[in-house]
Amino acid sequence: MSASPKPETPVALTRRARKIYRALVERYPYARCELDFENPLQLLVATIMSAQTTDVRVNLVTPLVFSRYQSAEDYAGADRGELEAMIQSTGFFRAKTDSLIKLGTALVERYDGEVPPRLEDLVTLPGVGRKTANVVLGNAFGVPGITVDTHFGRLARRFGWTSEDDPVKVEHAVGALIPKKDWTMLSHVVIFHGRRTCHSRKPACGACPVASWCPSFGIGETDPLLAAHLLKYELTPVQS
User: Fold this and answer.
1) Closest by CA position to 198, among listed 9, 73, 28, 70
2) Over its length of 240 residues, how does the chain's per-residue pLDDT go in tens digits?
3) Residue 236: inside a domain, yes or no?
């Protein structure tokens, strides 16, 4: 009878996690936040609007929203019916409108209309949790943060980086494996991989660049040719 495999040591886990990270960066060197924005307020608004919908859908709506509402004061004084009509296609538009109006009011009253660049301040704002705060910090302010969305959490567990389900616990567990300076890019490449290759229902294991280090290899299609047909979106940047 063969002996049971030895549990992975913390050092081995860290090394494996960093190999996976480097391989994902090589696969997706162009990975970035897929929400369109030009300033912290726009990114904060877009991220709130992205709940329960796709970044593609939000990007279709935000040009009109951003042209109409350009400051925190504009959101604070927004006509509810007008804003609801603008963002209706993103779903849950009444709750999102309520959050955006309250967000504008809070920014005006507490932060002189500016988006604060600190996690502890951002999470006190209406409609803003740690995930949204880390998106804004990492992409608008250059402050490293780990964005634990559904893709990131799923892949962190599949990679064996953590067994936690709670997003905050996932964030802390993964943050202990990867240098802080890489947290924002880590978020991008893992989310890109989750959207394009390591799908929820049928991951493309046979076309995965980190298959050699993934303990979940085999839960999806392992044949390289068949797996290639499961890939979504472009795996190389679209040239403009």
Assistant:
1) 28
2) 445 567 899 999 999 999 999 999 999 999 999 999 999 999 999 999 999 999 999 999 999 999 999 999 999 999 999 999 999 999 999 999 999 999 999 999 999 999 999 999 999 999 999 999 999 999 999 999 999 999 999 999 999 999 999 999 999 999 999 999 999 999 999 999 999 999 999 999 999 999 999 999 999 999 999 999 999 865 444 333
3) no
From the list 55, 131, 165, 223, the catalytic residue is 131
Q: For residue 181, give its domain range.
A: 10-31+146-228
Q: Helix (H, G, I), strand (E, B), or coil: what is residue 48? A: helix
> What's phi and psi for 190, nearest 5 deg?
-70, -45
CA distance 117 to 120: 9
The yes-or-no answer on residue 149 being catalytic is yes
Instruction: Give the span between the Cα atoms of 183 and 190, in whole angstroms.
Output: 11
User: In sequence order, which ranges of 177-234 are alpha helices (DSSP H)?
Assistant: 183-196, 224-228
Q: Are residues 116 and 161 in the same domain?
A: no
Catalytic residue (choose from 149, 169, 181, 232): 149
Amino acid at residue number 42? Q
Sign of the alpha-carbon dihedral angle for 184, 189, 190, 196: positive
Rounded distance, CA 138 to CA 116, Å?
Answer: 13
State pTM to two decimals.
0.89
> Residue 1: exposed, middle, or buried by beta-carbon count in 10 A (0-12, 13-18, 19+)?
exposed
What's the number of domains the chain is made of? 2
